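Incident log, entry 3
Record: Toll/interleukin-1 receptor domain-containing protein (468 residues)
Problem: checksum mismatch between cached and fresh output.
Input:
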Amino acid sequence: MNLSNFIIFNFILPIQENPAAHTYSYFTVIIMNKIFSQQGDWDELLGFISAKKVTVVLGQEMFKCKQGDALIPIDQYLSGQLLNAYQVTDKQDLSLMNAIDFIVKNNSDLELVDVISRLREIVKGVNLEFPLLNRLLGITDLNYFINTVVYDNIVANIYQKLRNEPLTAINFSLNEPFLDCGNLDCLQSPFMFNVFGSLLNTIDPALTEESMLEFTTQFNEKMSDVKAVNLLNALQTRNLVFLGCSFPNWMVRFILRLLSNQPMHSWGRTLRKILVVNDPSPLRDTQFDFLKNYRVATYAGDTGQFVDELYAQWSKRNPSQDTKKMVFLSYTIADKEAVENLKKGIEGISNVTCWYDNREILPGDKYEVEIAKSIRAADLFIPLISENSLMHKDGYVQIEWLTANNVSIWRKLDGKTDKYLVPVVIDNTNPYNENVPKYFSELSIGKVVSGNPSPEFIDQIRETLKLT
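Fresh output:
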């Protein structure tokens, strides 16, 4: 069955349960003779993804973090952290929305803005694994996202780590003016539209059902064609995949209509496709009864199963993606020619890209933050030691070197034994010069004159990156 002209809604039915393993068998239910289960359906969807004609709508079910051997919703984790911060020990089963409401109502000296500020600090410190997001963002042909969750920094950090490039954020807010992208060209680059705002970057993120209702009711006015013509045009030309967007019953119709930006009666009757995948939940029957009136087909399985299968099939088509490596080149501006030479030589190795600040940092980005992220995400750090770089002891290059050394230490503490620091001298500087940092001089320092690498050096890099 071809994917064309239908929408997909995911749900699960137990056929036979194994009490010991607590596993289910699944089957696919045909609604209005539409179904998503055949290989041809996956092939067509993968074709859209390969052509970069898909926008993914991220819901709460995609934000599951690893706790021991289990995956728990990030809201559950944050609710516990927030309640602990206010010394509430007998309400640990509250959802995040209810936890916020409880804290405000039971502390007369607190305003909602105070609780949100505390939550911001908690989210900034989140250092958890998000397997589903990691798997999804590992599909590097997916570059466009609509985020219905306010923790956009989690997505942005994973994206940066996996792809070594920033993900542009476009934020919607009730109390801040919407700034449309100046032209469609900028929307060809990876971006994420945070439809309910951003906890860290807008003043009024939607954290309660009341605020989410306000966002949905004012969305059309603030995002009229005149105000957001470029963004809306960009979204309308791509297929939509809703992943894990299980909203409260009253909100389902608003959200699906809002983000598709298309009358529901026309779903499945245009060249544009819409796919909806959700986890099993008490909302499933209600959602199904609603969506079946709009040429809906079903996918058997949950959000995790769908993402795993999508990633597996995409990986078969893109086998080299798993071995892509990034090398960070640290240099001073006076050695620009040398770093260009070295970059050219190293990028001659298949699946290797070089990163350095001159090319990658966008206007307005915080230098130290972006550099630190890229150094941490790199597979290899190569400092270009020269008379020029040693002259500027307080320059940015020294900050990069110190940061890389700290990353190297933490990698070792985490049990990573792969070589990370590969210092090279590019001029006549003595590698054991007293100005060379001790953490470099204690290593074997290579010689790459003027940044022109020898075949032996390239082989060394290839071997270090395990690309032989």
